[in-house]
């Protein structure tokens, strides 16, 4: 069971109160620097699903595809550099309509989908892949330690894990940040957090955009 002031990513008890708004408290871990919302503020699965059901992202929406290209391009370039013409990928947290998976399929790659609400296929997480993507997903994780370790374990040696999530800058920016207004957002990562994650799991990390992080698993 999660405890309010224990970091859900690294399990450290050395945390401090970071911010409070009209709705929730936020803590920051002094070890991995994750900012997190205590479990007492987490929505029920029914409440969370009701919010996700309001999303209406269309496969052929040019604006949405431009948004996704920020993670699609660095991953597809990485695959091209490795001369991998047909790869197997996993889109974790794909939602009800995965335009990102469609883009990779159009580029000639095979895609498997997983989403706890819309494509709940546990067997998908028991396979391995050349690449994994998690677009606007990791900020929703109640147990990021368990989930991120599982996803990194699914990446084959030499593969990559592409993450899209907005990053924490500082306390002042956090207090006025629209990203924390979404009640389904409960974990907020900084560059320091991803550096910790990469070191902890033996990966390399690069940042290709303000909200795109690529973890490279050793060959």
Description:
This protein is of the alpha/beta class. The chain has one domain (15-216): Rossmann fold (3-Layer(aba) Sandwich), CATH 3.40.50.150. 28% of the residues lie in helices and 24% in strands. It contains 6 helices and 10 strands. It has helices at residues 45-52, 62-81, 99-106, 144-154, 171-175, 191-200; strands at 15-20, 25-29, 35-36, 88-92, 110-114, 129-135, 155-164, 187-188, 204-209, 212-216. Strands 5-4-6-7-10-9 form a 6-stranded mixed sheet, sandwiched between helices. Strands 1-2-3-8 form a 4-stranded antiparallel sheet. Helix 2 packs across helix 3 (99-106). The model has no long low-confidence stretch (mean pLDDT 94).
Helix and strand arrangement:
Layout: E1 15-20, E2 25-29, E3 35-36, H1 45-52, H2 62-81, E4 88-92, H3 99-106, E5 110-114, E6 129-135, H4 144-154, E7 155-164, H5 171-175, E8 187-188, H6 191-200, E9 204-209, E10 212-216
Parallel strand pairs: 4-5, 4-6, 6-7
Antiparallel strand pairs: 1-2, 2-3, 3-8, 7-10, 9-10
Helix pairs in contact: 2-3
Key traits:
Rossmann fold; alpha/beta; 219 residues; 6-stranded mixed sheet; 10 strands; 4-stranded antiparallel sheet; 6 helices
The top-level CATH class is Alpha Beta
Low-confidence stretches: none
What form results from the Cα inertia axes? globular
The count of β-strands is 10
Compute the CA-based radius of gyration.
Answer: 17 Å
What's the quaternary structure here?
A: single chain
How many alpha or pi helices?
A: 6
Content-based structural category: alpha/beta
Strand content: 15-25%
> Terminal Cα separation, in Å?
35 Å
- The CATH superfamily bears the name Vaccinia Virus protein VP39
Strand order of the largest sheet: 5-4-6-7-10-9
Q: Tell me the CATH architecture.
A: 3-Layer(aba) Sandwich
Binned, the helix content reads 25-40%
